[in-house]
Write a structure and sequence with these properties.
The structure holds 2 protein chains of 2 kinds. By secondary structure, chain A is α/β, with parallel strands linked by helices. Chain A has 14 helices and 10 strands. Chain A has one domain: TIM Barrel (Alpha-Beta Barrel), CATH 3.20.20.210. Chain B is of the alpha/beta class. In chain B, helix 7 links the parallel strand 3 and strand 4. The chains are: A alpha/beta, B alpha/beta. At the A-B interface, helix 6 of A face helix 4 and helix 5 of B.
């Protein structure tokens, strides 16, 4: 039996996996680091927590995650033409002793079994609209393109500095990087605009990680983004996590399998809801596996971490994927 | 190209800085203010259709709606009071517990661009607030509520049930939307209409009041 890590590599290389990669099983996700612990995030039920960038976020009770609050007084960049006056970029360089507990945690992971996987969020596009408010941000791509390029350069610079520290201390095998690029049915930006503004940033960021020992780039966008897949490949993304059914995944696998792997195929909203049922979970897993096959595909709910909003859904998915492995790998 | 054609063109491509002069030019050419308004509504209709076909994206829709707004500002003194929102008033909001606003805002913009007056209650709106807004405004034809999370679908259900229990229910239409919402869910909770995107919502709103 292959290790979880070997099985994942066989899956994404079109080799001989002996079972489905079961959701996030191959990734030992490292959420904590000195920057993250100095970058406050709301806990479940907490409201109006200001992070290291000055962005206010809330996590209302009964919702699946934190969300930026953009009442007019809480928008960080009030005027994109003078973004430098508003933006305070947090520290990213910490002394070696600050990294020690996190290095120790990473060292406990059996790297033959799992990938030590560094987590980073929000990504470049999300950071822009967290700082600006989404409508202001989307309009600025049109009306203030020079300033948007400058702001993105500054955010990229920060991400590269973070990457340098992470690669120096944690030496991760994989990166799990979040940046939602679309809604259920469309990308937020046109592919042309995405290529002009967002792609160059990721060409630099993901290239840096790859050149400094990171074997796998896993990018989360639980959205439609099928039109961006060729760009994802150019950027060095190995696995697109969160791929929703609206992307026509079987067609994407046919077209791009071997260059990129698709992790998802089960829309969280279709299984993770109040009153969810085991039958529905089973049916969704079966549909996804039957449609997408056994290579270049990792069955997974679109949620961006190994969890579910409603208790028991993640575990039920895991069990049903194991059961599907027995049917599809003989 | 006539000035009124220019207005159509400039709204379609979202040239907010150029639209006011073009609208003024169209007025100077002797066009009726309502004709210019209808031209802009048609232009936004085309924008909505292109958005539905994924030919344009959210930024293009935002800049077009903003351009129309600038044009309406120039037209307002020339329109009979209420003409800009002649189709009636629409109350809109994201239900209690849900902080998402981009989808709701797009729907609000497209509905406004279709000739309605929009009363936007924002996000995280308790059900009672929708009713308060109805009572505080005359001429409300539609109440539109959205939920972007599976966890706030129950709040949408509660809101619609609360609206369905009001005496005024027979005189309004209730529209619902949001990523996890389906036609089946909309039917189950007793809403009058559900659409999948902002452009279709504007079209549906027009049909509901026709």
């Amino acid at each position: 039996m292959l290790t979880k890590r070997q099985n994942l590599l066989e899956t994404i290389r079109g080799g001989h996996p002996d079972r489905y990669v079961n959701q996030y099983e191959a990734f030992n996700i490292q959420l904590a680091n000195p920057y993250a612990i100095n970058n406050p995030r709301p806990k479940y039920g907490e409201l109006n927590v200001v992070n290291a960038w000055g962005v206010t976020c809330s996590w209302p009770t009964g919702t699946p995650g934190a969300f930026p609050v953009h009442t007019p007084d809480k928008i960080v960049i009030q005027d994109i033409e003078n973004w430098r006056d508003y933006l305070k970029v947090p520290d990213v360089v910490y002394p070696p002793e600050a990294w020690e507990p996190f290095v120790e945690m990473a060292n406990k992971v059996d790297r033959n079994e799992e990938f030590v996987t560094m987590f980073y969020a929000p990504g470049v596009f999300e950071q822009c609209h967290y700082l600006m408010e989404i409508q202001n941000c989307l309009i600025a791509f049109y009306e203030n393109p020079d300033e948007m390029h400058e702001l993105i350069d500054r955010i990229t610079e920060f991400e590269l500095a973070f990457a340098a520290e992470v690669c120096k201390y944690i030496k991760p095998d994989a990166l799990f990087h979040h940046d939602d690029w679309g809604s259920q049915t469309s990308t937020f930006l046109s592919p042309a605009m995405f290529r002009e503004f967002i792609k160059p940033a990721y060409m630099k960021i993901y290239k840096y990680y790859k050149e400094h020992g990171v074997e796998l780039i896993v990018h989360h966008s639980d959205s439609y983004a099928a039109t961006l897949v060729p760009d994802m490949i150019d950027m060095g993304i190995d696995i697109w996590q969160g791929v929703m059914t609206s992307n026509n995944i079987p067609e994407l696998i046919k077209q791009y399998g071997g260059k990129i792997t698709f992790m998802g195929g089960i829309d969280s909203a279709s299984v993770d809801y109040e009153g969810w049922t085991r039958e529905k979970v089973k049916a969704e897993v079966e549909r996804a596996c039957a449609e997408c096959g056994t290579k270049y595909f990792i069955p997974n709910a679109s949620q961006g971490l190994p969890m579910s909003t409603f208790p028991g859904v993640y575990e039920a998915l895991t069990e049903e994927i194991d059961a599907a492995s027995k049917r599809y790998f003989k | 190209m006539s000035k009124i054609e220019e207005v159509y063109q400039l709204v379609s491509i979202g040239k907010a800085k150029l639209v006011p002069a073009a609208v003024q030019g169209a007025l100077d050419e002797g066009n009726e203010a309502t004709a210019i308004l209808n031209t802009m509504i048609d232009a936004m209709g085309e924008v909505g259709d292109k958005f539905k076909r994924n030919e344009i994206f959210v930024p293009e829709m935002l800049v077009a709606a903003r351009a129309m707004k600038k044009g309406v500002d120039v037209l307002k003194p020339h329109l009979t009071t209420g003409t800009a929102g002649a189709n009636g008033k629409v109350i809109i909001g994201t239900v209690a517990g849900d902080l998402h606003d981009i989808g709701k805002n797009l729907v609000a913009m497209m509905i406004e661009s279709a000739g309605f007056e929009v009363i936007d209650l924002g996000v995280d709106v308790p059900k009672e607030k929708f009713v308060e807004a109805y009572n505080a405004n005359e001429g409300v034809k539609i109440i539109a509520c959205s939920a972007l999370l599976t966890t706030t679908m129950p709040a949408l259900k509660d809101t619609v049930a609360y609206l369905n229990g009001q005496d005024f229910r027979g005189s309004i239409k209730v529209m619902v939307g949001g990523a996890p919402i389906t036609q089946g869910f909309a039917d189950e909770i007793g809403a009058d209409a559900y659409t999948t995107d902002a452009a279709s919502a504007a079209q549906k709103a027009k049909e509901l009041v026709a």
